Automatic annotation (TrEMBL):
It comes from Anopheles sinensis (Mosquito). This is AGAP008958-PA-like protein. Keywords: Membrane, Transmembrane, Transmembrane helix. The chain crosses the membrane at residues 6-23.
Length: 183
């Protein structure tokens, strides 16, 4: 006869639940703090239907940008989604602007692929232009599966390589991660 111990049962149930829990990520907010003379971020997050938000709008590159402008990032998490953020040890690689865009193409293709007029990988300097984002749903599968639900915020900061302490550009994007079982 074949029997399953309580411990084995617990493991099986845990595996089943982990397989079932998948996260739905929704854009929550996009905000530019400063640096409009370099790049102006005119993006809004809107409710698209009951369960999905989209990002919509235009990013204007206002003057040529190259790798002398270095972009760094910081990630914050709010478990309760109530703006009590904690710094989280994860980031995009810090690099010059052209390299930063190239890295997005390489590692986060789904994030940039349908942005109209996004600089091509290797394009440098990036000249003045308007980049259009139309009703973009946050792409599934972009975030590591290990991330906890709640509000996640990435702050992107730009400064000249020669003067890193003098911040010239800052924007933030937040994404709400919901447990799919509860929506
Ligand atoms: C909302 O829109 C998204 C994206 O088009 C779609 O995948 C989803 O099924 C829609 N949900 C509802 C409830 O209509
Ligand atoms: C996004 O912007 C376009 C053009 O600016 C507009 O037609 C569309 O309705 C917007 N989407 C939402 C969900 O508001």
């Amino acid at each position: 006869m074949w029997s399953v111990s309580y411990a084995q049962l617990l493991i099986i149930v845990t595996i089943l639940i982990e397989a079932l829990v998948c996260y739905k990520a929704n854009y929550e907010r996009v905000e530019q703090v400063f640096g409009q003379e370099y790049a102006e971020i005119d993006l809004r997050v809107r409710k698209y239907n009951r369960t999905t938000t989209v990002m919509n709008g235009t990013m204007y590159i206002r003057q040529p940008l190259d790798d002398n402008m270095v972009f760094s990032s910081d990630v914050f998490h709010s478990r309760l989604g109530n703006q009590q953020f904690q710094h989280y040890p994860m980031r995009l690689p810090t690099s010059g602007y052209c390299q930063f865009i190239e890295n997005l193409h390489k590692e986060y293709k789904a994030v940039v692929e349908d942005m109209v007029n996004i600089p091509n990988p290797g394009e440098c300097p990036v000249t003045e232009r308007a980049i259009y984002i139309h009703d973009k749903v946050f792409p599934p599968g972009v975030l590591p599966e290990s991330l906890a639900p709640g509000l996640w915020k990435i702050v992107i900061t730009g400064a000249l390589v020669t003067k890193p302490e003098n911040i010239l550009f800052r924007m933030m994007v937040s994404v709400r991660l919901l447990d799919d079982l509860f929506i």
